[in-house]
């Protein structure tokens, strides 16, 4: 029997070797170390804020996919995934330093809370009691207020479970934090799966009636962050309706069909194909910045269902999103303006990344016809979303 050792044949990451064994009978046994590489999680200090030390965790799975997570804001700092030839690229927008995250981040990769997206005029009433929130996106309150969940240091507990690695992140928001009632105990579990998925399990409990709407705000560019616009990415949304907005980006209360409009992504369509057409909703948002109503079979919002798929043809990278949530905010990076320098040292301009934020609809606390975001003592808020990476055509 002869044995030939071949070094690295176009496989991703830290894969050392493939051994081909040719036996006397002519059979070839392929022994790839990639198939058996174990998942790994490492931790390092990554600076500090007024609240304390920030740590950065690096999670790697058996296929070489690598994700970096900061305890500051629970931020997904980098997400390195293979293209169709196995070459890794970082597909999420972000920074290479903590100061930029603290001082100028447009919510790159963070956990967004207590309430993702906008609440009109920073006001809502619950059980007859009025609540006032910070107006940080005039005239509205955006993403939980001035000091939302993205601006706190979370506690992280790493775990390894079979071929998966992950981090359980926790944060307790005190009663009255940013104007919201109730002490909110929040837990977000990030799991890097063996098949290149990032699973996010959100949980929260409260000691007073409150409203909650948590999401992750990662921006993606599947060709690699900093490589230019996402105009040619093909987007599919499992949504035949969306919630149109007023000029301040608050839902009008209507739920409109997408059919016959540039909001129709029920079939794979390039993001840039219609984002400059003179359609009132696009003019208001300076492009896509809307909540789509997912076509769900399960309306108890407990089952994971397909929400979105994005394909970047050049690399073959695909992002598929599954969620228990009723809505998804598709934001096409309209407010990126060339003033931010990203992780790889290149500037981000308008449309250089997109966000697909699974969520309950914006402004639900003021729109009783929308699925409820109320959480009462004794209940557990529980949602799950998966960012699944693969390659395709
Ligand atoms: C909002 C946008 C906002 C962006 C960054 C998105 O969720 O819908 O209007 O500019 O987040 O804050």
From TrEMBL:
Gene3D superfamilies: 2.70.98.10. Belongs to the aldose epimerase family. InterPro entries: Ald1_epimerase_CS, Aldose_1-epimerase, Aldose_1/G6P_1-epimerase, Gal_mutarotase_sf_dom, Galactose_mutarotase-like, GH-type_carb-bd. Pathway: Carbohydrate metabolism; hexose metabolism. Residues 1-37 form the signal peptide. It comes from the Bacteria. This is Aldose 1-epimerase. It is an enzyme of class 5 (isomerase). It catalyses: alpha-D-glucose = beta-D-glucose. Its EC number is 5.1.3.3. Keywords: Carbohydrate metabolism, Isomerase, Signal. PANTHER family: ALDOSE-1-EPIMERASE (PTHR10091), GALACTOSE MUTAROTASE (PTHR10091:SF0).
């Amino acid at each position: 029997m002869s044995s030939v050792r071949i070094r690295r044949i176009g496989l991703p990451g830290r894969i050392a070797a493939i051994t081909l064994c040719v036996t006397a009978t002519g059979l070839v046994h392929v022994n790839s170390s990639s198939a058996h590489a174990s998942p790994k999680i490492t931790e390092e200090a990554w600076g500090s804020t007024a609240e304390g030390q920030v740590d950065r965790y690096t999670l790697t799975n058996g296929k070489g996919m690598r994700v970096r997570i900061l305890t500051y804001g629970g931020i997904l700092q980098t997400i390195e995934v293979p293209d169709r030839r196995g070459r890794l690229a970082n597909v999420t927008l972000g920074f290479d330093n903590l100061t930029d995250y603290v001082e100028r981040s447009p919510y790159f990769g963070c956990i967004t809370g207590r309430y993702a997206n906008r609440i009109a005029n920073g006001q809502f009433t619950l059980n007859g009691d009025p609540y006032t929130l910070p107006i940080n996106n005039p005239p509205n309150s955006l993403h939980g207020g001035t000091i939302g969940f993205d601006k706190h240091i979370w506690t992280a507990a790493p775990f390894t479970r079979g071929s998966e690695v992950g981090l359980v992140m926790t944060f307790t928001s005190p009663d009255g934090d940013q104007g919201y009632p109730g002490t909110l105990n929040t837990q977000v579990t990030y799991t890097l799966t063996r098949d290149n998925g990032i699973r996010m399990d959100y949980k929260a409990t409260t000691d007073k009636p409150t409203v909650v709407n948590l999401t992750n705000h990662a921006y993606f560019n599947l060709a690699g962050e900093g490589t230019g616009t996402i105009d040619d990415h093909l987007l599919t949304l499992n949504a035949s309706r969306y919630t149109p907005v007023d000029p301040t980006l608050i839902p009008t209360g209507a739920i409109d069909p997408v059919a016959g409009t540039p909001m129709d992504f029920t079939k794979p369509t390039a993001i840039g194909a219609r984002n400059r057409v003179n359609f009132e909703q696009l003019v208001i948002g300076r492009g896509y910045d809307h909540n789509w109503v997912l076509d769900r079979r399960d309306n108890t919002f407990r089952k994971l269902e397909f929400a979105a798929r994005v394909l970047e043809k050049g690399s073959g990278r695909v992002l598929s999103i599954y969620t228990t949530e009723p809505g998804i905010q598709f934001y096409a990076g309209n407010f990126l303006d060339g003033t931010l320098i990203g992780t790889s040292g290149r500037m981000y301009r308008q449309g250089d990344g997109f966000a697909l934020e699974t969520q309950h609809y914006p402004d639900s606390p003021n729109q009783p016809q929308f699925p409820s975001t109320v959480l009462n003592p004794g209940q557990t808020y529980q949602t799950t979303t998966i960012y699944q990476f693969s390659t395709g055509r």
